[in-house]
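Data availability (excerpt). The following record was deposited with the supplementary files.
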Amino acid sequence: MDHLLSRLLIRLLPESLMSSSFSQIAARPQLVILSIMIFVQGCAYGATLPYLGVTAIGALGMSDQAYSALTVVASIMTVTISVSLGILSDGLRDRRRMIALLSLTGTIGYGTIFLFPSVPVFVVATALVIPFAQAVHSLLFASARIETSTLSSRDAAAVNTVVRSFMSASWVVMPAILGLALAQSANMIGAWGAASICTALIAAASLFLLAPPREPEGAAGTSRSAFFDALRELVRADMLVRMIAMAAVTGTTRLATMIWPLILTLELGGSTRDVGFIAALIALIEIPFMLIAASLLKRFSLLTLIVVSALLYGLHMVGFAFATAPWHFYALALPGAATAAALLSLPITYFQDLFPTRPGLGTAFMPINSFLGNAVSAGTFAAGAHFFGYSGTAWLGLVLALVGVIGLLSVERRIRHPA
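Predicted structure:
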């Protein structure tokens, strides 16, 4: 089965795309399986997250306040569980059972909402059950990192970026499929049924397709002291600076998705159809540029690509402030997606490289970064919209990018040249 998947990947990919990164993935059957699992996990996200508010408020009748509280609680639970289990996974020789068990909690959570749609079921499943399944995201990337442990740091980073593109591809495919499948449905509850199937497939793949590790990992152990030692790594001064700086950098992409639809529809007379077309266009453009970012990692450092991409993305956001017609946002989709591709795919490798022997700890930074990025973008949007309007808030995207870049460069310089 493993060799069959590898040969299939090689045949399906055009020769022009068979760069060394694709060759290295195809040569590692377990990495091929993990990439497909990451795609399926992304399908579970893509099936439900776009319709979360529509289903909670529109279909089930939750109030705006209750839905807002639910999203906050679910975010905190997801971060706490993902970080804790990511650290604990470094003490395991074999992550397969943990991945399978957590995936099955997603099958139960998503499936319960699909079979018994009601506000109490939706709240309990979303806040207390599904966050366990979302921890699978970190564990899959940690497992993928282990498969590249024999590669050089630059080759591993390039492969990691290609693997991350599988997640982006799922966000292009799944919402489109569900949109067509459920177009005649009165609500989007069916999306939770699709997510339940996806998590069940991940559990099955973990148990029956993933092979056990050939050799014991150099794990830190699962003792209480090892767990708290890892937590102390998270709150070191240099790590806090890195987390805040990276949250500012990635927060620019979230801020952009908040403001450009508002400028387009409320200020320039664009339609919701334009919003959908532009969002799909951005997602499609991001995938090939993730592959380009992977190839650039062979020539430039990871930090250099993140810094350049952040600055270019901030400048691209300034273009929002000067847009005077809907077509301007179609034009801005290309530079926005090209630079966002790096900001979406490279930070996970940045954090994993800091802890090369503890992939679970390194990957645990991603849910933290996502949480902080959402908080930074939400706060920036609230302040900017109040004082500067939507177009004025676009300038704050450049400010966020500059703050993040300065933070990342300062901490790297301080470590290279200690006092």
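Summary of structural features: The chain has two domains: 1-219, 235-419.
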